């Protein structure tokens, strides 16, 4: 009953097989191999963006920080939700890679920035000219850090507000696949068609060993991204091992089926927990994360029974309640979910 993180799940066997297959003989380095070229073509086709710049890196932090560095100069600010990965989980990497750009935080329920809050914040930024940081870029996360989703319409609305203020828009897609699977949209509809300028197409949380794709929909930014990636120490010489993972991920829409399974397990878990007395959801379950408030007795029983998950601050803590985050992955089974639900229901 392992629900700590989708990062804790193993790589999919097809991904391991692809890496082994790539490990035959010699091949071009730094992305000049045939598999890397194929991945670029496939991602452009998937996103319906034949001119998009496509670059692979291993960690999601690098994908986000390097993309933001191409969108936001050091004298400007990145607008982000208060709980965004760029703020709470990347150890200052966006500030580092942008050369010192500030992050301006925006609050909003369930991990989402609202249009009015964004408009107010943009209007107040750079108001006295040279003495202030200037509007730089907006970063959005889908699925959010609260496990919720921006609809395509919401993304488009926020992008329009940002563009009206001269800000390009970045999408943190660490769980991009979960969002697409849940919304039933296409990758193009959730990105450039909604006004997104750059996206990190995540894979590490969804069955890959470790690779993320950065897509810049303005190909003029490609050379800058290449230079920043090299200077930042994230250009793999044996690039084929990154590309092989991504190629397997794209084969037969494996990326989408793995995410859809994780989403289904989260929905099953969420529904089961709501049947336990004294248990509540802290955020709507819309992708593969469940945020719940559990009776302390149920939490202790679940831990004693072998369940593993993270304690997570609640927006409205109550006496005797423990706030938790439970992440489902492509390997989560119905049996695991049902066993955890039984323990919590029994204890509650």
Name the descriptors.
348 residues; alpha/beta; Aspartate Aminotransferase, domain 2; Aspartate Aminotransferase, domain 1; 7-stranded mixed beta sheet; 4-stranded antiparallel beta sheet
User: Roughly what is the average pLDDT, rounded to an integer?
Assistant: 95
Radius of gyration: 21 Å
Beta strand %: 15-25%
Proportion of residues in helical segments: 40-55%
- Going by CATH, the homologous superfamily of the largest domain would be Type I PLP-dependent aspartate aminotransferase-like (Major domain)
Specify the overall morphology: globular
* Number of extended strands: 11
Write the element-wise H/E pattern from the N-terminal end onward: HHEHEHHEHEHEHHEEHHHEEHEEH
- The number of helical elements comes to 14
Structural class: alpha/beta
Q: Which CATH class of the largest domain? A: Alpha Beta
Largest sheet: 7 strands, mixed
Explain what the structure shows:
The chain has 14 helices and 11 strands. The chain is an alpha/beta fold and 348 residues long. It folds into 2 domains: 12-254, 3-Layer(aba) Sandwich (Aspartate Aminotransferase, domain 2), CATH 3.40.640; 256-347, Alpha-Beta Complex (Aspartate Aminotransferase, domain 1), CATH 3.90.1150. Strand 4, helix 7 and strand 5 form a beta-alpha-beta unit.
